[in-house]
Amino acid sequence: MLSSQPVLVPNEHGELFFMVVPGSDERKLNSSRKLVADSVIYDLEDSVPTNKKGAARQLVLEALESYDIGSTEKTVRINAVGSGLEIDDLNVVLRSKYLEALVVPKVQSAKDLEFVSRMIDSIAPDSSRANIRIIACIESALGIMNIREIAQADPRIDGLLFAAEDYAADTGLIRTKSRVEFLYSRQRVATTACAYGLQAIDMVCVDYQNPAILEEECLEGRQWGFTGKQAIHPKQLETIQQVFSPSEKDIERANKIIDKYNEHIKKGIGAFNLDGKMIDMPVVKWAERLLAKAKVMSRSTTRV
Fold it and tell me: In what residue span(s) does the HpcH/HpaI aldolase/citrate lyase domain sit (predicted)?
């Protein structure tokens, strides 16, 4: 017997990490076939020079159509709505029936995502149209201010992603090793995602040569409620996976809490003592949520 309240897991997919691959780099695109990641993001935006945008679209379309990457999700990051490049991006990549999700950068308002959703309805093949998900990137002060409306913009919205570098550029924040300057914005993204049952994807760790910094960022993000993290280098994947996955110790404790709760509820006892700590309904809900998340993740064959 569990609590009568529903357990809200971020989403049914359970992604942990997103590996970004430049859409104009044929070598890296080919290498993406070997990546053990939950989702590969073929990028048409920041990693692609302006004079290679057209070529990148065709390379990404080829990757969508011909690459066998197992159960790893095929995702494309388009250029921002209003950039003048987004329509060409969508006209090309939406032709593929293998596209599973779109990452929309620099989202300022719900209208940006409503436009993308209309393009999906107009262009995507009938066989895949209903299943294409949208991940909204929050990268500006205006995006943070409009985040509630963004989260509810369309049924296809599946996650909110925080992009630190663009946010710092937009707001004039000064980057520090402590990352304290991002505390408000990161926590707002994670909290809003939780409120609306979406994935919360944390910022890139740009110091990819320093595993200690990456682990610190991952622990911080998970503590704040993020469900996953972006990666820009394959060597980051294992750490992200390990930190964001429920540990055996966490799962064991969650199961123990549920078992003891069921025992006590039969006796008409609400709060009870377990290993010297008080257990009440908020703790029981935490245990239910963690076990639900662990169950979702166990379905994936790409875990390391």
Answer: 19-234
pTM of the entire structure?
0.80
Where in the chain do CATH 3.20.20.60 domains reside? 17-244
Q: Which one of 3.20.20.60, 3.10.450.50, 3.90.1150.10, 3.40.50.720 gives the CATH number of domain 17-244?
A: 3.20.20.60
The tens digit of pLDDT for each residue in 265-283 reads: 888 877 888 888 888 888 8
Annotated binding site for substrate: 77, 139
The token pair at 290 is 């963690």
Q: Categorise residue 17: left if φ over 0, alpha if ψ from -120 to 50, beta otherwise.
A: beta
How many CA atoms lie less than 13 Å away from 18 in the CB half-sphere? 32
- Measure the CA angle with vertex 60, ends 56 and 63; round to 5°: 145
Q: In this structure, what token pair is assigned to residue 123? A: 């262009």
Let me know: does 77 contact 41? Beta carbons within 8 Å.
Answer: yes
Rounded Cα–Cα distance for residues 47 and 22 (Å)? 5
Q: Which residues are catalytic?
A: 280
Q: How far apart are CA 265 and CA 214, in angstroms?
A: 42
